[in-house]
Write a structure and sequence with these properties.
The protein has 468 residues and is α/β, with parallel strands linked by helices. The protein contains 21 helices and 16 strands. A hairpin with a 6-residue loop joins strand 7 and strand 8. The protein is elongated, with a radius of gyration of 29 Å.
Length: 468
């Protein structure tokens, strides 16, 4: 069962409508931020249409698909904002709605809707029982989302769903948010915030004694303490929220972001806006996400460069930390064109971290090279300190004895250092191979372009795990 609009204080449909018009109040104007937008991906368009076909199962799918394409609304905002009492979710939702020019839907706005028999029933039910049944609320929401402005401009759900049952029912109806934001803060902070709330009985606007006090003395004098914000009542609502939210979150595993509400409201808004403007990683089968694993000297860097050059993949270097790696893989070119990563992850913990952040390669290759071949490749590398030119005593010898006499070896290319690195790799490689069960193992001790052909075949058509 869902709560009614008691948290906001005003009673009746007119007051509810007034309370939801907060985007017109001067103290509710959001800061200027970049505009919302996202590229139109054909694969995701078809995926969305297939999802709707499976959900609605129309008798005649052709007109259904034509209507779906004509709506052209796969990339409008579809956002859920959740959070405990006093977390500021309504303010963030209102700012987002104004900034994105989309529709804000809440319990209050839904039951205040005019000319709706369902909304009238909900208001009567609330006046009698101080709550609205979940199914009645969902029917109201479904009715609202079918209206033209929600279809064309999208929507933000403020505080809905409140329970796991609501979340599952909403999903069954084919209502799928693209971004879910959950605000979080310590209960002690939230209780303190709630105790400072004040409400303007004329406009329904909510203010705060510490954070958002109105400058006009006339407004100050008429502010009232809203019902239900005592410490005990707030603690009860927080307990109920915590009990429900842990069961809601598993419904949105791939589109969920938790943002700390214990920071300035503008910072929370900026983080929320940044998230809803972020494209989710594509699951398109022809977006290569390639991972190359192998010991030092196995040729990973060369193979990554060849793949990047031929297929336009983004080559991510191996000297990159997780934070920077995340920033790079989240950029639009990596999302749209795919990527090839080499030199990371180096162990099982790093692989788990990558996986938990959603960076899942769809092709993994292990390059095996014997120890003697690696020693030959690396220990014979030299650098000319005068020109900076790099040589190899076997594959690219210096042109003169004079140049050869001044060549220097990098300490990391000593046989001892190479052996340490190879030992470290092979100690971790068994666990990595177990983690990436579908990985393809290749013999890297052959001509690099032959190795590249094997890798290319593994990207176009899956090969057996062991390739001679």
């Amino acid at each position: 069962m869902t709560r009614g609009p008691s948290d906001s204080g005003p009673q009746g449909a007119a007051a509810l409508r007034s309370s939801m018009d907060a985007t017109t109040a001067p103290h509710r104007i959001p800061p200027q931020m970049p505009q919302y937008g996202e590229a139109n991906h054909v694969f995701e368009l078809m995926q969305n249409m297939l999802e709707q076909l499976l959900i609605h199962q129309p008798k005649d799918p052709i007109p259904f698909m034509i209507d779906h394409l004509q709506r052209d609304n796969d990339y409008v905002p579809k956002i859920v904002i959740l959070g405990p009492p006093a977390s500021g979710k309504t303010t963030i939702a209102m700012w987002l709605a104004k900034h994105l020019s989309t529709n804000l839907l809440s319990v209050e706005s839904l039951i205040a809707k005019e000319y709706s028999p369902l909304a009238a029933d909900a208001r009567m039910h609330y006046q009698k029982f101080k709550m609205v049944p979940s199914m009645l609320l969902i029917r109201l929401m479904q009715e609202r989302l079918k209206e033209e402005d929600c279809i064309r401009r999208g929507w933000i759900l403020d505080g809905i769903p409140e329970t796991r049952e609501q979340a599952l029912t909403i999903q069954t109806l084919g209502i799928s948010p693209r971004h879910v934001i959950v605000l979080s803060a310590p209960d002690t902070v939230l209780i303190e915030r709630n105790l400072g709330k004040r409400i303007d009985p004329q406009t329904g606007e909510i203010y705060h004694t510490t954070f958002d006090w109105p400058p006009e003395s006339e407004v100050q004098n008429r502010l009232m303490v809203p019902a239900g914000i005592s410490e005990g009542e707030t603690a009860r609502k927080l307990l109920e929220y915590h009990r429900n939210i842990v069961r809601i979150l598993p419904s949105y595993p791939k589109v969920l972001k938790v943002i700390s509400a214990d920071q300035p409201c503008v910072d929370v808004f900026y983080q929320a806006l940044t998230y809803v403007q972020t494209s989710h990683r594509s699951n398109a089968p022809f977006t290569p996400r390639v991972l190359l694993c192998g010991p030092v000297g196995s040729g990973k860097s060369l193979q990554a460069a060849l793949l990047a050059q031929k297929y336009g993949l983004i080559n991510v270097p191996d000297n990159i930390i997780m934070k920077v790696l995340k920033q790079r893989l989240d950029q639009q070119d990596c999302i749209e064109r795919g990527w090839v990563l080499h030199g990371f992850p180096r162990d099982l913990d790093q692989a788990h971290t990558m996986d938990s952040l959603g960076y899942k390669p769809n092709r993994v290759f292990f390059l095996n090279v014997p120890f003697d071949s690696v020693i030959e490749r690396l220990s014979l590398r030299r650098t000319d300190p005068v020109t900076g030119e790099r040589y190899h005593l076997m594959y690219k010898p210096p042109p003169t004895m004079e140049v050869q006499a001044r060549l220097l070896q990098n300490p990391k290319d000593s046989e001892e250092q190479i052996k340490l690195k190879m030992d470290l790799f092979y100690r971790n490689s068994a666990e990595l191979e177990q983690f990436y069960r579908d990985a393809i193992t290749l013999n890297g001790d052959q001509d690099p372009y032959t190795v590249f052909e094997y890798i290319e075949s593994g990207i176009i058509n899956l090969l057996p795990k062991k390739v001679p």
